[in-house]
Amino acid sequence: MSVPDRMTAWQVGDLGDPADVLRLVEVPVPQPAPGQVLVEVYSTALNFPDVLLARGQYQERPPLPFVPGVEFSGIIVAAGTGVDPHRVGERVVGTAALPNGALARYALANDTDALPAPPGLDDVSASAFLIAYHTAWFGLFRRAGLRVGETLLVHAAVGGVGSAAVQLGKAAGARIVGVVGGPFKAMAAQELGVDVVIDRTRDDVPSAVRAATEGRGVDVVFDPVGGRSYDASTKVVAFEGRIVVVGFASGVIPQPPLSHALVKNYSILGLHWGLYRSKDPALVRRCHEELMGHVAHGAIQPLIADHLPFDQVPDGLTLLAAGDVVGRLTVAPPA
């Protein structure tokens, strides 16, 4: 496949809020190292880690300057040594190998991080598939062991990863209690199929959860928010319940008193999905295959808020950082 020498990309040259530090530049098209592939990007999904990377607050700190954009859909156009050359031409979803991220026409990915794109999803939906649904799958099933008939509480239930957890929980036969912020998000949660919708801007979350569960509480909590959301979860988690700590979108990292977990007999489970890519890649592949089966049967479909033109990336990341998005924001590649 013919690949140009240079491309347009968004680049972070200094650390700070994305709107302040992103610059539109022309850079050389990167070359795949051994074990890597070069992907022509068809769509990029914006993720909260993109915001944290720009601020220098993510666990990974690529050298400056770097091209952000951690998640993409596209087609493999070149392969480094050690990669099956037959992969060239394969439609894939994946996570980019920074500093050569997916907010560009071309991105690099490690061979094992570029997985087959689900045939049932178009390029836009496919770009928003991998991180959210893998995170939800590992959180609900690998870590929490969610079972049929259990009650699942999802915070930020119409956010990117929250909406994925709602759909997978429904597919697993769980009853879903979803917490959202505001009436518009409450309507979106109802449309998504949440069984009990709680608007934290209007309702007292612990009281509403107790009323919805007749005082019993919930078996599993999926929490990508932290802060007050985590505190509310500890008040409503049932006997032998499980709280899965997925992230801290609120900006507040809880400091839980372990004596409380002891007296209520609940578990606090951490989830860093990225670790599975290095620690158990075979399980990542099994997760992906199972999720593709869910797509084929129509059980899951990424919730897309908007597909933005390439020049609106800073605005999109600002909205994402403020929590003002229902579902996922995706970005078209540069013209």
What descriptors fit this protein?
seven-stranded mixed sheet; six-stranded parallel sheet; alpha/beta; single chain; 335 residues
What does this protein structure show overall?
The protein has 335 residues and is α/β, with parallel strands linked by helices. Helices cover 33% and strands 27% of the residues. It has twelve helices and 15 strands. Helix 4 packs across helix 5, helix 7 packs parallel to helix 8 and helix 10 crosses helix 11. The two termini are 18 Å apart. The mean pLDDT is 96.
Overall form:
globular
> What Rg is obtained from the alpha carbons, in whole angstroms?
20 Å
Provide a count of the helices. 12
Low-confidence stretches: none
Number of beta strands: 15
- Helices and strands, in order, run as EHEEHEEEEHHEHEHEHEHEHEHHEHE
State the separation between the terminal residues, measured CA to CA. 18 Å
- Rounded mean pLDDT score: 96
What is the helical fraction, as a range of percent? 25-40%
The profile of the biggest β sheet is: 7 strands, mixed
Give the strand content.
25-35%
Helix/strand/pairing category: alpha/beta
Topology record:
Elements: E1 6-12, H1 18-21, E2 22-28, E3 36-45, H2 48-55, E4 71-79, E5 91-95, E6 106-110, E7 114-116, H3 123-127, H4 130-143, E8 151-155, H5 160-171, E9 175-180, H6 183-192, E10 196-199, H7 205-212, E11 218-223, H8 228-236, E12 237-245, H9 258-264, E13 267-270, H10 273-279, H11 281-296, E14 304-308, H12 313-322, E15 328-331
Parallel strand pairs: 8-9, 8-11, 9-10, 11-12, 12-13, 14-15
Antiparallel strand pairs: 1-2, 3-4, 3-6, 3-15, 4-5, 5-7
Helix pairs in contact: 4-5, 4-11, 7-8, 10-11
